[in-house]
Amino acid sequence: MFGLYAREARSISRMAHLRFFPQAVVGGSGAYLTGDDGRQLLDFAASWGAASLGHSHPAIREAVNRALSDQAGASYLSTANEPCVLLAEKLLSLVPERARGRVWFGHSGSDANETVARMVVAATGRSRILAFEGAYHGGTVGSMAISGHPAQQGAVKVPGLTLVPYPDSYASGSSEAAKEIVLARIEELFATEVPPEEVAAFFIEPIQSDGGMLVPPDGFFKAIETLCRRHGILLVSDEVKVGLGRTGMMHAYEHSGIEPDIIVFGKGLGGGLPISAVVGPEAIMNHAVAFSLQTVHGNPVCAAAALAVLETIESENLVENAARIGTVLRDGLEQLARRHSIIGNVRGRGLALGAELVVDRESRMPASRGSALAVYRAFELGLVLYYVGVRSNVLEFTPPLTLSEAEARKGVDILEKVLADVIAGRVNADVLAGFQGW
Ligand code: PMP
């Protein structure tokens, strides 16, 4: 245990503690973080820390410094400041016509989703919300209330929430069958306990990321969109984790050929600074005004950082880079899967990738302990990884969008050693003390 980490443990709540990463970070550059022992750690969990442009990107540093001196970093009276207006105009230019109304700014993915949930119910007069089992929409009471991740069992749920199973193509063995079962379940719900005319919104994650980097089967979200349109249900795409270029398209929903009514951005939007945004039709978004004024939303420094992020994604062609380097990384992971049967399945899009670890490929039993050990061993060998999944057995790969081909290959090389050590039992299993998955 290094000095700063020990002091963190003595002074800061364990609640927000990242497990299997027992070190404090003192800086970073590009795809690397610097530990307080001077070690360079290749960051393949950048979506976690929102480092979409990598660490210390000059465009963000300059934008933040400029906003600090121009605006004194003040908490202005809400969003009537130049960086916010420019950012709102930029976001509106990025979304499809049906969502191009107004923008609301928050601080995190959680408060953004929570606001959407309140807004759609208030604006439509409908009291029900649909979301997916396994979905993670946030960690505040309101956003947990519309989430279906097992880590949030016991959380308060909104009375009108109905969770629908999410099609897991790998677990069920067939994406087509998984899709049909879920669509049939929704139709059944509509015909029985969930009258569709009472449903205000359907929340989707275009890739269910914390649930296990689950890519929807072909045509699945198109079918959901059709159902929503038929019944006047608002389709909400939570792009917080996989949006803004990460999947190799600007918006992750674009892969499904759908046009959501409401789009939620967070994490990478601020490049590490706390800002989230909701974009949607004017009639819905203006309904929120009465009850959604927060003290420092619309902070000009955060908005300036977000604007720099969006501009840099364009000027450095990071959407294309995510697609291109994503292919390199995915190929590398698939090669590893050929050599190590602990990898049951590799999936994802662009630089939002996952590898499901299994005890054996026949039973597909989750290797949850193996995943935790892999995360810890990766930390020891200089690679920042995390695991996701409703069974805590999917290694997540979400490096910065700026990742180079050499960095992608280096990450795969480290991972190969990590897996070999996990399989050979060379990782200190004491780190698993008390581990029961999420
Ligand atoms: N939505 C999605 C899809 C997420 O992955 C997350 C965080 N993992 C959130 C919302 C919550 O965002 P935040 O942690 O910024 O509150």
TrEMBL record:
It comes from Paramesorhizobium deserti. The keyword Transferase applies. GO terms for molecular function: pyridoxal phosphate binding; transaminase activity. Belongs to the class-III pyridoxal-phosphate-dependent aminotransferase family. InterPro entries: Aminotrans_3, Aminotrans_3_PPA_site, PyrdxlP-dep_Trfase, PyrdxlP-dep_Trfase_major, PyrdxlP-dep_Trfase_small. This is Aminotransferase. Its cofactor is pyridoxal 5'-phosphate. The keyword Transcription does not apply. It holds the Pfam family Aminotran_3. Keywords: Aminotransferase, Pyridoxal phosphate, Transferase.
